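RECORD TYPE: inverse folding
INPUT: structure tokens
STRUCTURE:
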């Protein structure tokens, strides 16, 4: 069965965005793009909340066509075009979007079905950003791992990654990676009995 892995940039104090959704504190460079690109290139399914999906749709379909497109823009744009996209949204129900599935109700059943479906090879399903969607999945114990990019900053306030957790959740550290810009990758799996 495939796993849902939450992919997030976070501050050292656990926030994924500032109080007004600011993300200008996130450090990204070519080293991180290359590292992330290698892992996501194996995936065939991306999971988003509505807001993050709309941000992605506004940029990635044409990112490779821009005159100053970077290597990352070209590679990620190609990946985004072919990946199966799943959006958690109650307001987008009935939208007919290419290569996109909308989940608006029966979240637990729909996610369990998605995990078993194996769109094309059984790779992990990456949940990109999407704090509201992540919180909904956390509350129903549907996230199997966390791929976190800890930025060397303390925000003091903002949108927390871990919200709505009722019980302790044990994690097992799989890998770490230190980037030259000061960001540290932590790759965890939920340690279920």
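DESIGNED SEQUENCE:
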């Amino acid at each position: 069965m495939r796993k849902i892995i939450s992919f997030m940039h976070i501050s050292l104090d656990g926030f994924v965005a500032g109080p007004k959704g600011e993300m200008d504190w996130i450090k990204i460079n070519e080293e991180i793009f290359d590292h992330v690109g290698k892992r996501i290139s194996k995936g065939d399914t991306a999971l988003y909340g509505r807001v993050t999906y709309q941000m992605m749709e506004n940029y990635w379909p044409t990112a490779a066509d821009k005159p100053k497109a970077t290597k990352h823009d070209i590679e990620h744009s190609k990946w985004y075009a072919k990946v199966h996209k799943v959006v958690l949204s109650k307001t987008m129900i009935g939208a007919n979007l290419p290569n996109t599935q909308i989940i608006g109700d029966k979240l637990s059943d729909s996610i369990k079905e998605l995990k078993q479906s194996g769109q094309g090879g059984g790779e992990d399903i990456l949940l990109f950003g999407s704090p509201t969607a992540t919180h909904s999945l956390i509350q129903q114990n549907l996230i199997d791992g966390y791929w976190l990019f800890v930025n060397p900053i303390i925000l003091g306030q903002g949108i927390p990654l871990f919200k709505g957790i009722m019980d302790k959740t044990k994690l097992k550290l799989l890998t770490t990676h230190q980037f030259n810009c000061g960001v540290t990758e932590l790759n965890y799996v939920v340690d279920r009995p």
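NOTES: Helices lie at 30-40, 50-63, 71-82, 107-117, 131-139.
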